[in-house]
Amino acid sequence: MTRSIPRGRTVGAALLAAALAATAVACSAESPSTEAGGTYTVWDPYPQFTEDSDWVGLLKDCGTSAGVTVERTGYDTTDLTNKALLAAQQGNSPDVLIIDNPVISTLAEAGVLTTTAETNLDVSTMEPNLLGAGQSEGKTYGVPIGANTLALYYNKDLLADAGVDVATVTDWPSLTAALVKVKAAGKKGITFSAIGTEEGSFQFLPWFWGAGAELTALDAPPAVAALTLWTDWLAAGHAPNSVINNTQTTSWQEFASGEYAFSENGTWQLANAAKLDFEYGIIPIPARAGGTAPAPTGGEFISIPVQPDTGRYATSQQLVTCLTSGDNLLTTDTTLSYIAPVAAVQEQQVAANAALKVWVDAVKAAKGRTGDDLGTRYPRISEPLWTAVQSALSGAQTPQEALSAAQRTAASATS
Amino acid sequence: MGIDVTRTPRSATVREAAPAVPTAPSARRRRPGGARWAAWAFLAPVVVYLIAFYAYPLYRNVELSLREYTVRSFVQGGAPFAGLDNYRAVLAAPTFPQALLNTLVFTVTSLVCQFAVGLLLALFFHRHFPLSRTLRALFLVPWLLPLIVSASTWSWLLNSEASVVNAGLALVGADPVNWLTSPRWSLVSVIIANIWIGIPFNLVVLYSGLQAIPRQLHEAAELDGAGGWQRFRWITWPLLRPVSAITLLLGLVYTLKVFDLIWIMTRGGPTDSSTTLATWSYRLGFGNLLPEFGSGAAVGNLLILLAVAAGGCYIGFEHRRRLS
Questions:
Q1: Does A290 lie in the same domain as A388?
Q2: Which residues of B touch A (CB under 8 A)?
Q3: Which of A318, A337, A356 finishes a domain?
Q4: What keywords are annotated for this sequence in UniProt (chain A) (predicted)?
């Protein structure tokens, strides 16, 4: 009696072992094979798209025309960087990786990505300012799949009530004057996201660059002017104190409440904007002295990670080309609600939807965060920058003190 | 971190008595050494589990902290051995003193308040009155909620614009407070939220500890004319001491490593004002586009050392108690 129990357990253990072995076999069956055809893996940061979405449909079609099966996995954006690094460490990178543009320089530095020259990808039609984020030391590590950037959404009803003509908002003084009028009408001025993460730097950069500041000199007078603009808005009550903790989503929720005149937000909110219960409009973010401020480019690059079997690149190249050329690019960017990285396709987009014009202009004026050959120095500058923004907005330091401290930190981290 | 049960006199006798069972002559003679193999075989899954999920990750973490990792060497291998450089850099960083102080303030305040409120509630519910079960169950709700839900709820409650708490302050004529966005209040805010989350745990454990105290003792004391306070001071408190100690120790370990709550509510900001060692370690390792695994791991290890030190204090305390 007592001995039958261990025997039963042995059987159980054997079954478990068999099950584990079966799983292992199943896993290895999924791993890429080198035969013609076979399965090609694609990782993207769009978990919102399910298997039956247009995006996945397009991926599968591209696979079919290249004669292979595409196996796609969608990851959360922030998760994907770590996943890609770990996969590279384990030697099982996906065949095609679609990843947020500022991460490209990090992955390139890690030696995870092939260059477009190695894999014969054509990037000649891509807009140079968008391609910049994927370039480092003269090499290009991927193809922009589409771009988004920041602009100012405004509440038409609210501005009309406050007597503000949005056409007069062309530079910082006229924007601040509009905010004063809005406040006098008993409403709130502007909301944005100044949270202590990359998102905060992303939102601050249009003002920073719009003042003429450079990421290599965080404590220069134009940079201080940009941070002073934000700090003064908070002090005067034009912007809520909650911006210090706002993500772009919570800042959008504030705007959606109908209490705010302006909101700094991106292309990706267009679908939500259609659901607002007031009329909205969009203007480019004004530079300090007028004109459109360069906003940082958002959006992903599509690249081919290094594989132990270089024979796979040819098919991967076909997949990437399929996704980024001609009509497919239009489909891709319409699906993702992005602005195309190619001028001709941008024109098609505007022809189809005139409301995208302001975004196309904003994207044309935008620049990559890791561009100007900053590469992996950008993350080491960005963190002190968002810390300085937080420090000044929360009143811990003056803008000049905060940015001087940031410059010292950035200089010692990048030297 | 365990409680060393083998040291107690009672289990020592159990250990001596235990071999008596399998020495039943038939079993021993039939398979010499077989029992030992069987014992190892039974032990193997646990050992494999412990090595795979505890020892190896811990070893990797120590190794990470002793090497100079860049993204390149993380992927390609060959990170140079850096000795204690990462630790030196972390200890010299301006964030370190602030993070350490915040961790201590956060942990001590949370523990003291959670324990005090938990004990008061446990004593209250110990009296058994109508609906006491229902009320006690309601107090467990914070424990059952996923942390992301409670942390987000707290951020809403404490939001600078149009929050419930500030509306309440306005009712009594006080100025609104920037709970999460001013360096003065951010740490206070996350501590308040953490206390709220920790109360149910203290309540449950202390309540069951109270149940274990024999009623007769209280009755005898009552007959001797002891008042409520005297009974608490001379009966409940001393008899609850072992339970209190383990509650505080577990609470300490939980509180030291609280990360999600702070990260969701303030991201450790503004400017490090609510950064603890746990959030700092995460920020170094994952909070930036360019991960610094070495420094992140070093901070994580310092945190483990703190927890181990606390565990050591507990074992010492238990040891002294048993000797006396």
A1: yes
A2: 38, 70-72, 74-76, 155, 159-161, 178, 180-183, 266-273, 286-291
A3: A337
A4: Signal, Transport
Inform me whether the C-beta atom of residue A254 falls under 8 Å from chain B C-beta atoms: yes
pLDDT in tens, A157-170: 999 999 989 999 99
Q: Which residues contact A263 (CB under 8 A, 6 or more apart)?
A: A152, A153, A154, A190, A191, A192, A251, A252, A254, A255
- Structural domains of chain B, with CATH: 5-11+88-323 (1.10.3720.10)
Which has the closest alpha carbon to B111: B3, B238, B254?
A: B254
Within-domain flag for A270: yes
Total domain count for chain A?
Answer: 2
Q: Is residue A352 part of a domain?
A: no
Residue of A nearest to B158 (CA): A242
Strand-by-strand arrangement of the A280-283 sheet? A188-191, A260-266, A150-155, A280-283
pLDDT exceeds cutoff 70 at A38: yes
**Shared domain check, A394 and A251:** yes
Instruction: List the end-to-end C-alpha distance of chain A, in Å, as a whole number.
Output: 73
Instruction: State pLDDT tens for residues B231-273.
Output: 888 888 888 988 999 899 999 988 998 999 999 999 887 888 9
Nearest to A148 by CA among A291, A319, A349, A381: A349
Domain ranges, residue A322: 35-144+300-337
Confidence (pTM) = 0.81
Do the strands A143-144 and A300-303 form a parallel or antiparallel pair, or are they unpaired? Answer: antiparallel
- The answer to whether residues A266 and A306 belong to one domain is no
The label of the residue with tokens 């204090």 reads B313
A278 and A404 inside one domain: yes
Nearest CA distance, A258 vs chain B (angstrom): 13
Same domain, A53 and A84: yes
pLDDT for A201 beyond 70 = yes
Residue A39 lies in a domain: yes
Residues 6+ apart with CB under 8 A from A145: A98, A299, A300, A301, A302, A323, A324, A332, A333, A336, A338, A341
Average pLDDT over residues B197-201: 91
Residues A215 and A305 in one domain: no
* Percent of chain A predicted with pLDDT > 90: 46
Which residue of chain A is at minimal alpha-carbon distance from B177? A241
Q: Are A146 and A333 in contact (CB under 8 A)?
A: yes
Closest to B318 in 3D by CA, of B242, B248, B210, B205? B242
Residue A165 in any domain: the answer is: yes
pLDDT digits (tens, 9 = 90+) for A14-23: 444 444 444 4
> Which pLDDT belongs to residue A178?
94
Interface contact A244-B269, CB threshold 8 A: yes
Domain identity same for A385 and A409: yes
**What average pLDDT does the structure give for chain B?**
84
- Separation of CA B239 from chain center: 23
Residue that terminates a domain, selected from A288, A312, A337: A337
DSSP string covering B157-195, please?
HH-SSS-HHHHHHHHTTPPP--TTTSTTTHHHHHHHHHH
Q: Per-residue confidence at A29, pLDDT binned at 50, 70, 90?
A: very low
Minimal-distance CA residue of chain A relative to B293: A82
CB-based burial of residue A104 (10 Å sphere; 0-12 exposed, 13-18 middle, 19+ buried)? buried
pLDDT, mean of residues B128-136: 84
Residue that wins the pLDDT comparison between B195 and B81: B195
The verdict on A404 and A257 lying in the same domain is yes
d(CA A406, CA A101): 24
The domain spanning residue A304 has which CATH number? 3.40.190.10
